[in-house]
Amino acid sequence: MLGMSIRSPHAVVLPGTGSDARFAADAFESALTAARISMQAVEPEPSGVVAGYKHALDAAAHVHGRIIVGGISIGAVVAVAWAIEHPDRVTGVLAALPPWLGDSLDAPAAASARITAQQLTEDGLAAVTEAMAASTPSWLAAALRRSWAAQWPNLPSALLEAAAYAAPDEPALRSLGAPTAIVGCVDDPVHPFAVAELWQRAVPRATLSTVTLDDIGADPSILGNLAVADLLSLIG
């Protein structure tokens, strides 16, 4: 189907900061399955999120040859960085809700992660979870309750690690040769749509689809439906 010499179409998808493999699977699995692409959603290791993600990508490429890499938020950042570093191992990229470009210092997503890590350290998981749930859409609060509890007590360090991770800058994105499907959210202040636009303009072969927070809340698989359809159209 993909028209490329890969042993078995396979995708590895990486969750966002503080999220989990279940949400990444909810986002991507149905679309990838419909396209006859097997999928692995990686469970983050809170004591070493980025290293764990890279290890999973390395291992999948060793087994499957060239793979599709993807992710949400920081997962998309790590996936794109790995694709740039391993051009001979990548068939395509699925990048949902990119959080920043280059240094994360002024990025809303990184600031949110740092603040949450501090609150968790000072006030504990239960109190911060309840405060989060009171100010967050119900679908996201439910997902974070699950993933935060699973990553505790190493959750603060995982958040700080993600917040400090530098995304590829514009010159690096211009070197990304793999076809790349980007999905940006037009009303998410934590993942500014302008960042998705910058990624799309910088990557030589990239598409950009749009969603709203309500779209994701109604059905997270919209992220995968849009991204996979766009990637298949790029691959041809």
Structure in words:
- This protein is of the alpha/beta class.
- Helices cover 54% and strands 14% of the residues.
- The chain has eleven helices and six strands.
- The protein has helices at residues 21-34, 49-64, 74-85, 108-123, 125-134, 138-151, 155-164, 170-174, 193-202, 213-218, 221-235, and strands at residues 10-14, 38-41, 67-72, 90-96, 180-185, 206-211.
- It has a six-stranded parallel β-sheet with strand order 2-1-3-4-5-6, with helices on both faces.
- Strand 3 (67-72), helix 3 and strand 4 (90-96) form a beta-alpha-beta unit.
- Helix 4 (108-123) packs antiparallel against helix 7 (155-164) and helix 5 runs antiparallel to helix 6.
- The longest helix has 16 residues, at 49-64.
- The radius of gyration is 17 Å and the shape is globular.
- It starts with 9 loop residues before the first strand and ends with a helix.
- 49% of the residues are buried.
- Residues 1-6 have low confidence and may be disordered.
Rg for CA atoms: 17 Å
Mean pLDDT score: 95
Note the main sheet: 6 strands, parallel
Helix content: 40-55%
Tell me the number of strands: 6
Beta-strand percent range = 5-15%
Which structural class fits the helix and strand makeup? alpha/beta
Helical run tally: 11
- Amino- and carboxy-terminal Cα gap: 9 Å
Strand order of the biggest β-sheet: 2-1-3-4-5-6
Shape: globular
Task: State the order of secondary-structure elements, H for helix, E for strand.
Answer: EHEHEHEHHHHHEHEHH
Low-confidence stretches: 1-6
